[in-house]
From TrEMBL:
<dbReference type="GO" id="GO:0005381">
    <property type="term" value="F:iron ion transmembrane transporter activity"/>
</dbReference>
<dbReference type="Pfam" id="PF01566">
    <property type="entry name" value="Nramp"/>
</dbReference>
<protein>
    <submittedName>
        <fullName>Natural resistance-associated macrophage protein 2-like</fullName>
    </submittedName>
</protein>
<feature type="transmembrane region" description="Helical">
    <location>
        <begin position="258"/>
        <end position="280"/>
    </location>
</feature>
<feature type="transmembrane region" description="Helical">
    <location>
        <begin position="366"/>
        <end position="387"/>
    </location>
</feature>
<feature type="transmembrane region" description="Helical">
    <location>
        <begin position="475"/>
        <end position="496"/>
    </location>
</feature>
<keyword id="KW-0408">Iron</keyword>
<comment type="similarity">
    <text>Belongs to the NRAMP family.</text>
</comment>
<dbReference type="GO" id="GO:0015086">
    <property type="term" value="F:cadmium ion transmembrane transporter activity"/>
</dbReference>
<keyword id="KW-1133">Transmembrane helix</keyword>
<keyword id="KW-0406">Ion transport</keyword>
<keyword id="KW-0812">Transmembrane</keyword>
<dbReference type="GO" id="GO:0005886">
    <property type="term" value="C:plasma membrane"/>
</dbReference>
<dbReference type="GO" id="GO:0005765">
    <property type="term" value="C:lysosomal membrane"/>
</dbReference>
<feature type="transmembrane region" description="Helical">
    <location>
        <begin position="502"/>
        <end position="524"/>
    </location>
</feature>
<dbReference type="GO" id="GO:0005384">
    <property type="term" value="F:manganese ion transmembrane transporter activity"/>
</dbReference>
<dbReference type="GO" id="GO:0031902">
    <property type="term" value="C:late endosome membrane"/>
</dbReference>
């Protein structure tokens, strides 16, 4: 009996790399250790990119920046997926240039969150899903532990977000194939093509990680060129564009524009992307025992992420500006007349009434073709195809990292890819078979709601690990979580109320209570567990000070001791040399 307790206690020991001792006193640990002392299953990136050494004292090196370039651009693709493109074009068509400042603000917030995600991966050597797995440990035995339940629920919530995003991405590719083939390739046929070519492209990393990153860079370049072409063709009003971008005001805006603003935030800040970025940074060789190298890696990853998200922001602005300039306040009748005059076979998509034009990715391409010629339609479709294909691939990586991290899988590479692909592809294929290509807007709205609802399940872990009040008195994440939950509740209530169903009202109320309860539990549970560990570390530091009679000896890099250091916006878990 006692032996079992001792064994259970030993299983709850934790390490970052190793547990250091000093004069017989063992440093307390933070993350639970694998009982078999096995490394977590590596995901995809078997090779590491070496960072060149630079003996000079220059504060910046382009050679080093180039070595760290890659993960940020893969991460930025989530800001350019078909869901974002649809949000952009709807924003332009419904609000003109008035919501560009929301897009700018959401991108900046996204950059700050990606910075935290990258730092978590660099400093701990684990991505966010692995940290969550070690935070919510499973106790041996046949019964499901109370600690295991929230971990499984958290995994399911993130998995739902990935599935919802993947459905939009695959459907975006299918729509692009349909437009490029003038309707000859049906939606389900485009889904099957996307499944096959995604598997092919995913194995490009067999030829080297840098070649894979270059391929993603090519897809981003295609998006920049195609959507940039549309921007130059339409020639938006630059004064109105700058006003909408830097003046945080929406004149004569109602609930439609407010819901669209919420949709922009939900489309830009995607939960699975935080998990993805924290894993991608592990592909660089960084000596985590060297404080200088860790700081340097954090700096260059942040610079790279800033450049990547700036490019993605410009591409999003291109799309918003095109539809704001050409189609803001346009009516269905106006578009119908133009399409009819140009002989477009798609004029039947627009009802002959004076209601405001409703556009999605498919109708957006059709409208561009009617107003600016067939070239605009086909170039638009190529851009959507590049967006869908690239985001589908990164979505697969996200699913891989999340599933391996939360469940600690040790499967063969092909089996893992097949499972993670099937989870998202099967519902997408069913939707494509039974849903008409012209009626996808409602489903995309639902998927945007779904992804927005899952956002706290990425924000809570990353913000909890990096902004505990006990560590950083100047930063508190409680308000951030409250705002995110309030936005999500508004989005759900607004969406459900439009369906006019009493049963759905009751279901939404029940779901909202359950949702907020689980969110609150995650915050309280993580705070309580980390506070206990921080208290243990504090006791260790006190004991160390008693032995050495030096106030800073235990936390400065003169001693070989485990320490926790709070620095402004995140937590460093480090072994000082």
């Amino acid at each position: 009996m006692n032996g079992g307790r001792a064994e259970d206690a030993s299983e709850r020991k934790a390490v970052i790399q190793t547990t250091h001792t000093h004069r017989g006193f063992t440093a307390p640990s933070v993350f639970p250790q694998n009982p078999n002392n096995e490394e977590f299953a590596s995901t995809y990136f078997d090779q590491r990119v070496c960072v060149p050494e630079d003996d000079s004292k220059k504060c910046f090196s382009f050679r080093k920046l180039w070595a760290f370039t890659g993960p940020g651009f893969l991460m930025s693709i989530a800001y350019l997926d078909p869901g974002n493109i649809e949000s952009d074009l709807q924003s332009g068509a419904k609000a003109g240039f008035k919501l560009l400042w929301v897009l700018l603000g959401a991108t900046i917030i996204g950059l700050l969150l990606q910075r935290l995600a990258a730092r978590l991966g660099v400093v701990t050597g684990m991505h966010l899903a692995e940290v969550c797995h070690r935070q919510y440990r499973t106790v041996r035995g046949s019964q499901l532990s109370c600690v295991q339940v929230p971990r499984i629920i958290l995994w399911l919530m993130v998995e739902l977000a990935i599935i919802g995003s993947d459905m939009q991405e695959v459907i975006g590719c299918a729509i692009a194939f349909n437009l490029l083939s003038s309707g000859r390739i049906p939606l389900w046929g485009g889904v099957l093509i996307t499944i096959i070519d995604t598997f092919v492209f995913l194995f490009l990393d067999k030829y080297g990680l840098r070649k894979l990153e270059a391929f993603f860079g090519l897809l981003i370049s295609i998006m920049a060129i195609t959507f940039g072409y549309e921007y130059v063709t339409v020639r938006p009003d630059q004064g109105e564009l700058l006003k909408g971008m830097f003046v945080p005001y929406c004149e004569d805006c109602g609930s439609t524009q407010l819901v669209q603003a919420v949709g922009i935030v939900g489309a830009v800040i995607m939960p699975h992307n935080i998990y993805l970025h924290s894993a991608l940074v592990k592909s660089r060789e960084v000596d985590r025992s060297n404080k200088k190298e860790v700081k340097e890696a954090n700096k260059y990853f942040f610079i790279e992420s800033t450049v990547a998200l700036f490019i993605s922001f410009l591409i999003n602005v291109f799309v918003v500006a095109v539809f704001a300039e050409a189609f803001y306040k346009s009516t269905n009748m106006e578009v119908y007349n133009v399409c009819n005059q140009t002989g477009s076979p798609h004029s039947h998509l627009f009802p002959q009434n004076n209601e405001t034009l409703e556009v999605d990715i498919y109708k957006g391409g059709v409208v561009l073709g009617c107003f600016f010629g067939p070239a605009a339609l086909y170039i638009w479709a190529i851009g959507i195809l590049a967006a869908g294909q690239s985001s589908t691939m990164t979505g697969t990586y996200s699913g891989q990292f999340v599933m391996e991290g939360f469940l600690n899988l040790r499967w063969s590479r092909f089996a893992r890819v097949l499972l993670t692909r099937s989870i998202a592809i099967i519902p997408t294929l069913l939707v494509a078979i039974f849903q008409d290509v012209h009626r996808l807007t409602g489903m995309n709205d639902f998927l945007n709601v779904l992804q927005s609802m899952q956002l706290p399940f990425a924000l809570i872990p990353i913000l909890t690990f990096t902004s505990l009040p006990s560590l950083m008195s100047d930063f508190a994440n409680g308000l951030v979580i409250l705002v995110v939950c309030a936005i999500n509740m508004y989005f759900v209530v607004n969406y459900v109320s439009s369906l006019h169903s009493v049963g759905l009202y009751v279901l939404a109320a029940f779901f909202s209570i359950t949702y907020l309860t689980f969110v609150g539990y995650l915050v309280c549970e993580e705070k309580n567990q980390l506070d206990k560990k921080l208290q243990n570390n504090s006791e260790y530091i006190k004991e160390c000070k008693k032995q050495h009679y030096r106030k800073k000896h235990c936390t400065e890099n003169k001693s070989n001791i485990y320490s926790i250091k709070a620095t402004g916006d995140d937590i460093f878990y480090q072994i000082y040399p």
